[in-house]
């Protein structure tokens, strides 16, 4: 997952060489939270970037500056900060970036409050010797972020798409645990008999 975060930055670096009128506001993007889902009442990490050929002078979130002094004036900047999600209601992340020439862009990102953990459904179990072949699926109201199998102290991630419903097939010994985590960080688990 860490390698996926660099791709938007590579695109921006490529675009940095392209001619762009100086009258344009900065580009502003978010890398996290993925899927815009957050667990109510929990702190979440927001990561993003801003780009402008004349240099980025400021990045503000919810009215507070989030760009470090060392980053100000650079063409491509990354920022990271924590945000406390409310326990109920709607959340809207308000972001603003200003370039060195005073051009500004505002972005509003609605965040979905997701308190429901993903649901693990075991559709079929087939025993073959000391192993179980498990056919199942994981469903979530927003998006399943990852599914792993825990065997003892070892966690093995399954290579699955990040969708609201994903199917899986694993061969595991008795006592293994399937763990699912959604985009907001809610988790559920299911032990294999």
TrEMBL record:
PROSITE patterns: PROKAR_LIPOPROTEIN
Entry protein name: Lipoprotein
Gene source species: Thermus brockianus
